[in-house]
Amino acid sequence: MSTDNGPDEMTKKCWDEKYYQPEIERMDQEDLKLLQLERLKKVAEHCYRNIPFYRQSFDAVGFNPETIESLADLQKMPFTLKQDMRDAYPFDLFAVDVRDASRIHASSGTTGNATVVGYTTSDLENWGDCFARAIALVGGDSTSIMQVSYGYGLFTGGLGAHEGGNRIGATIIPMSSGNTKRQVQMLKDMGSDILACTPSYAMLIADTAVEMGYDPATDFKVSAAILGAEPCSEGMRNEIERKLGVTVVDIYGLSEVMGPGVSCECRYQDGLHVAEDHFLIEIVDPDTLEPVDEGEWGEVVFTTLTKECSPLIRYRTRDISRIIPGECACGRTHRRMDRISGRSDDMLIIRGVNVFPSQIQQVIADFSEVTSYYQIILSSKGPLDHVALMVETVPEFSFDEVRRIEDLQKRIMAELKSNLQISVEVRIVEPKSIERSEGKAKRVIDLRKAGE
Ligand SMILES: [Zn+2]
Q: Which CATH number do you get for residue 430?
């Protein structure tokens, strides 16, 4: 029943991969570990000296940063939680005076205090370098034109990509998000080579271009898209690649740790190389907090190695991933993390079953009749949770035959049931029934509390 809706190789434009910092990106693993150890000592002492929170938490477990002898000593250090960052609002986790910072970013703070992160000039340069590696690996350099359609502002997407473009010397078009027809016009008229935005927005730009009468795969010069800030399933990636005629690379990052560029896929699209000279990655069992074996799934934990203003020790991201064992064909030696399989914060508990929206996305990606525009609506029916999935069809799908629609509904329901062990009411809807997003898509509407 799985249908091949993969990208048409003929329409994907080719590019030659480059390295932005080959001496670091292809560094010998042993040398890299020595560099990490040296930087770990420095950052631990920096935290201990300049951030009372860390002095107290290190003292509480009897940890002295001066005793660090190997990377394994990391295990002796306490974790940092998102709540610790909220409690530190606004500047209690800054290791430098706020007036010595060059810039501040912050999360939206919809569920409590915002998390505030500061960057010194050097922090911004390092951030730019991390993003610039992503630009180089899609063939970009100082002659490239990059359209940045991530939102600019306190959100790290726009200015993070911008910083990367600056470091590599590219021509940047700072579109921010919104005004999608204008985005399409600029993408065409400016002859942009690279598009940077969220996967949802790339999809909307592609669809809008088609509506405006273009075939982006042939009419536009854009050859690569660096997409991040939300999960992108393989099906969605294929759809964007086919519609825009580009190669999509997934870039990962979170504002608490830096922003986009903590890790990025290479052209082999098999895991995201972590910028291991700037970040130490650990995968731990979310229950026991013990490290898992290489290749096993668990919660991703990062320690920043070079940040001056907002360093973090063992920050629990709540993202679930794993380290992909083995070497990558691209020659980069930095280890790869797998695509995020879910975020423990996004996890839905439906009738006692743990479900990630990304699992639902993966199931529908196998049906060629539908697109990756979907929405999950949770409500209460008596004491039980009721789950509805709205999913849009491809434009070619005919709504004239009721039997075809019912058949499709049944097949998707059966597949969801066998994959997720929950009953889902599937509503097949016409294209454009679901509200479009210029940033991160709103995938879940939870009406359960309101209905009580
Ligand atoms: Zn690679």
A: 3.30.300.30
- State pLDDT tens for residues 299-343: 999 999 999 999 999 999 999 999 999 999 999 999 999 998 877
Average pLDDT over residues 84-96: 96
Q: How many CB atoms lie within 10 A of CB 285?
A: 13
In 3D space, the residue among 195, 269, 257 whose CA is nearest the CA of residue 233 turns out to be 269
Count: domains in the chain: 2
Residues 76, 181: Cα–Cα separation, whole Å: 53
Please tell me the predicted confidence (pLDDT) of residue 381. Answer: 80
Distance 143 CA to ligand 1 centre (A): 23
Give the range of the structural domain holding residue 250, as residue numbers without chain letter: 1-343
**How many A from CA of 343 to the centre of ligand 1?**
24
Nearest to 272 by CA among 296, 250, 302: 250
CA 33–ligand 1 middle distance (angstroms): 19
pTM as predicted: 0.84
Q: Are residues 117 and 176 in the same domain?
A: yes
In this structure, are 304 and 371 located in the same domain? no
Distance between Cα 79 and ligand 1 center (Å): 29
Average pLDDT of the chain, as a whole number: 91
Structural domain contains residue 376: yes
